[in-house]
Amino acid sequence: MKQRIQLIVNGDSHELYVDTRRSLLDVLRHELNLLGAHRGCDTGNCGACTVHVDGRVVTACMLMAVAMDGAAVTTVEGVGAVNGVGPGSPGVGLHPVQRALIEHGGIQCGFCTSGMIMSALALLQSNPRPSREQVRAGLAGNLCRCTGYVKIVDAVLAAAEELGA
Amino acid sequence: MSAAVGRRLPKLDAPAKATGRATYGHDVKLPGMLHGRILYSRYPHARVLDVDTSRAEQLPGVKCALTAADNPPTQFGYGKDNTPFKGDVVRSLRDEVAAVVATHPDIAAEALELIRVKYEPLQPVLTVEDALAPDAPLVHADRESNRFITYNYNHGDLRKGEAESDVVLETTCDLPYVTHACMETSVVVAHFDDRGHLTLWSTTQIPFLLQRDLSEALDIPGSRIRIIQTAIGGAFGRGLDIYPYEPIAALMARKSGKPVRLAFSRHEEFLVSPARQPARTHIRAGARADGRITFRDVEVTLDIGAYVSWGSVTPLVMMETTASLYRVPHVRFQADCIYTNNLITGAMRGYGNPQSTFFVETTMDQLAEAVDMDPVQFRLLNANRPNEETPQGLKITSCGMKECLQAVAAAADRSRGVVADGGDEPLGIPSMFRSPRSKLRRGIGFAATLNVGGGARIYRSDGCGATVKIDDFGHVSLITGSSEIGQGSETVLAQIVAEVLGVDPGTVTVLNSDTDVKPWDVGVHASRTTFIAGNAAHIAALRARAQLFETAAEMLGEDEDQLVARDGQIAVRGGAAVA
Fold it and tell me: Is the CA virtual torsion A46, A52, A58, A64 positive or negative?
């Protein structure tokens, strides 16, 4: 069975006719070709598919797409975007969180990175000057198998400092 | 002076990963691509009487079903004991029985439920003890026993060592399964082109060995197999072998005539992917009253599961630790790799070394206690030294083991000092250790490790090819056999090449993901890439620079030895002339 929904993703509006069994992650990855949110576990445990829905941090694999009608979704592709054009395009720089992760060596295989960024952004929106413990708690739902987290936490703290300066 | 090497640079692959643009295996999409799913065994050991896929094939959206009837006639894997699908007998719960290819993964999953398999359960062997019992059922009926291989190593004279000992102790450690748990589950996309050549988009760590392994598994020439490595979402040794799902994806692509993606669910990843071998280790060790180690006698029994992998070579690394971590005059090491009907095991980080370091260092503490010595002093007394050859023949040149142990001990003392002076709130001690009601206490432990690096030399070649290409516009590309798995090899190699050619490392293009393009390399493992691929890249860059200098010398009317490469140009030493 299919159902018609409207999704606003990274500022762009999409009219979609989706199978009622599909998750938000399915729709982002397969219908909209936004591949930045990754499927690590499909059970809401690993955080690799973290996105923002109407300003809330969610794991996209745990939400039914048909329940998202009218929602505004931000994925990693929309982070730091200006007028819908993402970082790396001419004149559009990286968000400080992205830049800090790159500069602090917080990215190895990178599969967790987009989810980490989305959780870190939400954390810094609600708590612009977090302590190290608060950063750790804020990223607790995002698993990383490579780094041991130290450099990721360093990067988020550095980004917080830059954003607050 | 240094333009590129020795600088702390962001990784070249990091911006794509920070913006969600890196293409992982799960992101590969090809026109007309279909999706495959595999049906696994219901029993750890059973005879397969019948597999009926007819109902699955009738489900709308299903393009084809596959069974052991689709297997090539060959066997593959380190022990040549594996086939894509299992035919008459299944030997573990992860054994592939059948598969379907469909237009959507959900349809494929639904179709699996329509496959009817008739089994006749057989007695499984689920422990190494059961597997070694005299009347044990054989995991592979064509073998004489469930013992795949035994490794033996000796140096010195164990009896002499024991006679010289003032203390002798024995310890048994049971070491568990450990899974790689890569963030990205196993995935492969297979496609046959019009020439009948196979392209496989893969997360392997060994593209060229996989080419060879697949050639065996599919019974087609390796020259018709192209491996393209995607961005790899974790490896940790998982990618150091061939697994049945890889030839299965190729068989799916051939049978359906379309590109096929085969992607594991997380559940499947835990069930089907390899783990570190569980091992029972028995160690006897002795020391003199003055603290000198006298002997080490180790027996390890590894449960390798139902099929052999490169993981069954890990005892070679355990052997090295056993024989050469600290100075030990008399050593015996024996390891048995045993088939069981358990899940498969394979190569995993450290490749045996975490296990052997654990049992060696456990006995180091026990021996120190037995001879009433401080554990650090005991280790210092027995530490490896510079310019000595271990009895196993490892030539130790530079070695700062003593200095390292001393530095760590001094830091630990300082941390204890902080605890003593800091009152109720010692820094760095979590609250759970501080509660008077808690049974948890904080301790400090010491362990050293000895590890291979810069090439393992267990394959016929440990080499790596490299080509440096400089185009009309002065742009430098490195085409290297090595593989990037997030460890930063692209960046390191770009730095090495940039250093020689006097260009900004950020401008170097590293091509490292396509076996049709890149020269041979054994794979990414054993801390070898910087040393081996790095030296290959270095030599290629030096040769490229020599060619440039030859031409530039002619153009400038200068001697070649007066030229330098810097800032993307060839200049005369001390001058400004450029070519």
Answer: negative
